[in-house]
Amino acid sequence: MSKKIAIVEDEAELASLIEYNLSRGGFQSKIFPGGDRTLEDLRDWQPDLIILDVMLPGQDGFEICRRIRQTPALSSRPVVFLTARSDEVDRVLGLEIGGDDYITKPFSPRELVARIKAHLRRSETVAAPSADTAELLRGPFRVDRAARRVYVNEREIELTSTEFRLLEFFLAHPGHAWSREQLLKEVWGEQHFVTPRTVDVHIRRLREQIEDKPDEPGYLVTVRGFGYRFEITESAA
Ligand code: CA
């Protein structure tokens, strides 16, 4: 069955252009023009991924994304923001919003489709674990891959799908130093539109979730001039 992509965009022409390109890419899509019922309509339709414009009538994309993250039926779905200005990017990737990706207008529909495919491939990989790797245990961390849930000392933490993949990757490779470029390749996949700074922003968000003192990380440490390393010893549990 083809994947369902929600297009939350109030510019009708742009929305149809995206819809057209998605259907050519083999996706089922539906346009949501914004407004008060957007969250309820998304919940009813159950999209696999949400394309979310920032500037919308009524609630803006940031507010809708925040509410998506608080809605259990939608919270783990990738959200790709459409931003009109590059200064919105900081907010998209900021701690309080929880977007997985962004694309700045004007953009090529072909690039958008490529990016959506990459996101869906990754969520599929995570969603269909083989039986023997369904759970990953490291120190105080427990990753339930099938349910896409992470627990620290049996307390569940709330992660976006990108944060989930990033943490899962680090936990699977403890003690190894990774450059930003390597992380982009391993966690984000072959995408040319994300920059090394994207990695830093997601690392910061992840630290807020897993570290006692995010400014003095004990797990996700910076390897100066290179990248990041996840430090964990089994006795840390
Ligand atoms: Ca708009």
Quick recap of the structure?
The protein has 237 residues and is of the alpha/beta class. Helix content is 38%, strand content 21%. α1 crosses α5 (109-127), α6 crosses α7 (180-188) and α6 (161-172) crosses α8.
Describe the structure.
It is built from 8 helices and 12 strands. The protein is of the alpha/beta class. The strands form 3 sheets. Strands 2-1-3-4-5 form a 5-stranded parallel β-sheet, with helices on both faces. Helix 1 crosses helix 5 (109-127), helix 6 crosses helix 7 (180-188) and helix 7 (180-188) crosses helix 8 (196-210). The longest helix is centred in the middle third of the chain and has 19 residues, at 109-127. The site of calcium ion (CA) has 5 residues, from loops.
Question: What is the average of the pLDDT values?
Answer: 86
Q: Sum up the overall morphology in one term.
A: globular
CATH level-1 class of the largest domain: Alpha Beta
Radius of gyration: 18 Å
Bound molecules: calcium ion
Architecture of the largest domain, according to CATH? 3-Layer(aba) Sandwich
Q: How many domains make up the 3D coordinates?
A: 2
How many β strands by DSSP?
Answer: 12
Q: Which sequence of strands runs across the widest sheet?
A: 2-1-3-4-5
Question: What is the CATH fold-level name of the largest domain?
Answer: Rossmann fold
Helical residues, percent: 25-40%
Distance between the first and last residues' Cα: 42 Å
